[in-house]
Amino acid sequence: MAKRGSYAKGVAKREEILTSALDVIAREGFRKASVREIADAVGLSQAGLLHYFGSKEQLFVEIMRKRDEVDTEHFDLDSSHYNPMREGYLRVIRHNSEVPGVVELFSRLAVEASDVEHPAHEYFLQRSALIRELFTKSIAEEQEAGRVTDKVDAEVLARILQAVSDGMQLQWLLDRDVDMAATVDALFTLLGAAPANTAASAPAGETSTADS
Question: Which ranges of the sequence are annotated as binding DNA (predicted)?
Fold first, then answer.
């Protein structure tokens, strides 16, 4: 029982660290969010903090996993239907513009993860596969219904959507005037489906007539 209780406390502390780390990075930015600052936020020494993750690199990978978990819960990213998936994805992109530190961390890790020995390598492979699977399924469904072009294979379109989304993050980090969500939404529109039915996507005073 003691071991089980100790394990549960360890899991709870780990979750507290990740939640706090996301908040610190979102508030202070990636470059200012040192391991020391994250440790201070949860009342641990740097060594005590890394005890839960093994290394700074693994800590950052787990922060990204936590970010994905939070986004999935808050923005309904697990829908396999096209319009809900589209709307949820655009909401995430809009939210990302409010947390530049998290976007910078993601982009830096994505580059470093090209090294197969990097702790983030498997995370990005798995994450990319899950996103493409979701996109491919919903796009194929729309293609069968004749609402999205079938001139390009659904899986290829899914890869294009993912590539544009990742690329827009890099452009936005260089120029904060770039509207990431509007650009990605324009690509969805080019595919042929109805515009996303979200309040944030419609100009003030207007209502969307998109089909749900």
Answer: 34-53
Helices 2-28 & 100-112 angle (0-180, nearest 10): 110
Closest CA to 120 of 65, 185, 71, 45: 65
**Residue 91: its pLDDT value, please?**
93
Domain boundary assignment for the chain: 56-198
∠ at Cα 157 (152, 160), nearest 5°? 130
Query: Element (H or E) spanning 189, and its range?
Result: helix 180-191
Higher pLDDT, 87 or 28: 87
Q: Which CATH architecture does the domain made up of 56-198 adopt?
A: Orthogonal Bundle (1.10)
The Cα 190–Cα 207 span in angstroms is 21
Alpha-carbon span 205 to 20, nearest angstrom: 37
Structure tokens belonging to residue 103: 């976007």
